[in-house]
């Protein structure tokens, strides 16, 4: 008599695990499809916004050139708007720092040498800059400087941690409520000193810059005296290039 061939028995727990795993895989696949669709729509919005910002920057630049030409033809002078944005770099260490200066540097989040931050210019911040002037170099950054700093050395503050900005999702998770969903939104908000500048500047971790190529001239002297500290207006862009 030939023994009947029986199918190998599979434990019920293993069957249950397999079923759960398959259901999980199906759920993940569905989520991935939805995520892909969502990202595609988001990319379109980001691209449109970037185009809009480029157009805005060009119009602003052309307006400045046009107004300067008009003033020149009428033997007059064109005075551009007062700058609203400053980039501040700490150029001296902790030796012989008075308590008042130390407090100002803490408020600016400039706790280390060669740290840099974006500051909104108004009466209180200008007074603070004057107090800390011997320890900082500052000026008015252009669009290229803002963009290069954020793209190359941009780090965000996420759950009190310093996270490199490698993805738009990092920005959206922190600033999505403010309508800032990508790097170009962040650059625009900083450069134009928009209504959500405070949140955008707080999200950006202070930039850790390198020592300038060729070194400083003399950190104890003011820029107008051939040194390095104090306000250097648009010349800050050249210094940032050396340190970035």
Structure notes:
The chain has 8 helices and 7 strands, in the order αβαβαβαββαααββα. Helix content is 50%, strand content 11%. α4 (143-153) crosses α6 (183-191). The strands form 2 sheets. A 5-stranded mixed sheet has the order 6-2-1-3-7. A two-stranded antiparallel ribbon has the order 4-5. β4 (155-158) and β5 form a beta hairpin. The model has no long low-confidence stretch (mean pLDDT 90). It has helices at residues 12-73, 99-107, 123-131, 143-153, 168-175, 183-191, 197-203, 236-243, and strands spanning 85-90, 115-120, 136-139, 155-158, 161-164, 207-208, 230-231. The radius of gyration is 27 Å and the shape is elongated. By secondary structure, the protein is α+β, with helices and mostly antiparallel strands.
Short overview:
With about 240 residues, the protein is α+β, with helices and mostly antiparallel strands. Helices cover about 50% and strands about 10% of the residues. The longest helix is centred in the first third of the chain and has 62 residues, at about 10-75.
Strands across the major sheet, in which order?
6-2-1-3-7
* Major β-sheet profile: 5 strands, mixed
Share of helical residues = 40-55%
Q: Provide the structure class.
A: alpha+beta
Q: Provide the low-confidence segments as ranges.
A: none
List the keywords.
five-stranded mixed sheet; alpha+beta; 244 residues; 50% helix; two-stranded antiparallel sheet; 7 strands
């Amino acid at each position: 008599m030939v023994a009947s061939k029986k199918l190998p028995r599979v434990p019920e727990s293993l069957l249950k695990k397999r079923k759960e795993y398959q259901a999980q895989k199906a759920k993940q696949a569905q989520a991935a499809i939805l995520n892909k669709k969502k990202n595609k729509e988001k990319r379109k919005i980001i691209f449109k916004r970037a185009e809009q910002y480029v157009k805005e920057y060009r119009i602003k630049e052309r307006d400045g050139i046009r107004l300067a030409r008009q003033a020149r033809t009428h033997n007059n002078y064109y005075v551009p708007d007062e700058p609203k944005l400053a980039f501040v770099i700490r150029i001296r260490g902790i030796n012989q720092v008075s308590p008042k200066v130390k407090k100002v540097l803490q408020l600016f989040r400039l706790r280390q040498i060669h740290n840099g931050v974006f500051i909104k210019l108004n009466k209180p911040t200008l007074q603070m800059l004057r107090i800390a002037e011997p320890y900082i170099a500052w000026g008015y950054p252009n669009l290229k400087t803002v963009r290069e700093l954020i793209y190359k050395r941009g780090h965000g503050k996420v759950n009190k941690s310093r996270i490199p900005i490698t993805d738009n999702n990092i920005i959206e998770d922190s600033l999505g409520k403010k309508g800032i969903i990508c790097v170009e939104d962040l650059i625009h908000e900083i450069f134009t000193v928009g209504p959500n500048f405070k949140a955008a500047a707080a999200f950006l971790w202070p930039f850790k810059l390198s020592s300038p190529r060729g070194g400083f001239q003399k950190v104890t002297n003011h820029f107008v005296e051939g040194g390095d500290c104090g306000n250097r207006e648009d010349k800050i862009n050249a210094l940032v290039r050396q340190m970035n």
